[in-house]
């Protein structure tokens, strides 16, 4: 019997018991066991049960008059209430939506129902694609969803003339255009890196389209490309999560998940794939669509073990790219150089600091492990509170007049706020060596805003402002030392809560109990050093060790830090110059696409090697192959 057939059998049997086993949804129940499941049968059965939990929960909420596309797709794959699905599809297609977030759900329904929906219901979907002009959107995830949906619908309805499609192109023209774009995007991602790298929420907007390709593409090449991209995306997720929780740096995040690190769609994917963290409320929303497709994908053991079976520290240097720049720059997609260091108790991540995504980028943080991360703010970082209409015009091909105030009405409320804790700045430069981070700032006078904000979580313990200038604290089982190079004061951390409004997004602000360290010096800097509590006799011993580290800094003419880290590295970092470690300057031009403990790939190679212990999987877009090997044991 083939492995896929075995898995489908497990899935069918799990259907019968999922409802009784998961009467309480996992996002409301106790945190999951973090036991590493050793056998494939155990992993497959647990995965199938999680998939069916999502389907049972969503179908259980369904009401005929409010049946949405996610629930319709679930009912179709379960072969339930088909006549109700017919009626609801026909009704919904009378007023179809536009853009990627309508396109991919309607495509999923079209394929899930192609041999189950009535001819009238199928015709209503097809007619909506003829009459409603579909907008492509303006970001990388929009384009992936748009082109995947258009590709699959053109395969589903081949050889049809241009008048039957809203974009005025024939099925064959749409196939050629969308196939070409998707291949170009895959080539770009696998040679110089993704633009929307490590997003806290937008991982779903990549994983779902790739699962759609892997499940339904007729062209075996495109089906294989979808499968390989899923492995690629999930290998990065596994490698950059701490007990299932994604940390920084992030190309895109938001005001909530930048501090409450667990509270993002990425945690749903960790839960459904690896089972090592609770899912977010409602299974992340978009996660419901992935659950429809999930039975057609099995996470490889090597990726599962990277996420769950941490036998050593992970140290990783990776290459990505910024969001596309449209104006005021000679560079189209400048490089992003990421550093990741993950240990059992905490993780540290960063990139070199620059404008990457002006609104939602997150440059660096230290995040510590929590047994149950829900409601916790287990992170520490600093950020320049930068706001600029010109910077927005660089990255968005839209009218400049509404920016930046219009960003608030689009659901990004903090962009033009001085106490913001999310966003990137051209005046922030960062260097990380293992668990030491130095962030330097040189802010021109007149910049909006002239301050650096440091985030101090409500969950920190033993916060101590030492006369040496260091601030000491404990988060979970991690000891943390924070040093502001200039004077500071404290302000409350106020998060944003959306409220009903007839005029787009509107928000109120709530005190989270966390604090913001605010420093208003134009030439500025932050140093953070992390360590595990079990490395020291006690918290006092950690403080003594930090204060004993050689440290010199100056602010003029440029902020500069010279120090010895807890790991014995001598580092010198000057704003705008190459960092120096043990006398050798860091040469970012030599960084590979991936280089580290588990993921390795040459820049430009289109080939990723994934390893854990004796397991190895090679993803090769040059040959469109996946190769698994096991190193012989001693």
Number of DSSP helical runs? 16
Span between N and C termini? Answer: 31 Å
How many strands, which pairing sense, and closed or not: the largest β-sheet?
Answer: 13 strands, antiparallel
Q: What would you report as the Rg, rounded to the nearest angstrom?
A: 25 Å
Question: Can you give a write-up of this model?
Answer:
This protein has 634 residues and is of the alpha+beta class. A hairpin with a 4-residue loop joins strand 11 and strand 12. Helix 9 packs parallel to helix 12 (287-293). The longest helix is centred in the N-terminal third of the chain and has 21 residues, at 40-60. The two termini are 31 Å apart. Residues 1-22 have low confidence and may be disordered.
Helix-strand layout with pairing:
Blueprint: H1 3-21, H2 40-60, H3 69-78, H4 82-92, H5 100-112, H6 119-131, H7 140-156, H8 171-189, H9 203-216, H10 220-239, E1 241-242, E2 245-246, H11 265-274, H12 287-293, H13 301-308, E3 314-321, E4 335-342, E5 346-351, E6 364-368, E7 379-384, H14 389-395, H15 405-409, E8 428-433, E9 436-442, E10 452-456, E11 461-465, E12 470-475, E13 478-484, E14 489-499, E15 506-519, E16 523-532, H16 539-548, E17 551-554, E18 560-564, E19 570-574, E20 580-581, E21 584-585, E22 594-596, E23 599-601, E24 607-612, E25 615-620, E26 625-630
Antiparallel strand pairs: 1-2, 3-4, 3-22, 4-5, 5-6, 6-7, 7-10, 8-9, 9-16, 10-15, 11-12, 12-13, 13-16, 14-15, 17-18, 18-19, 19-20, 20-21, 22-23, 23-24, 24-25, 25-26
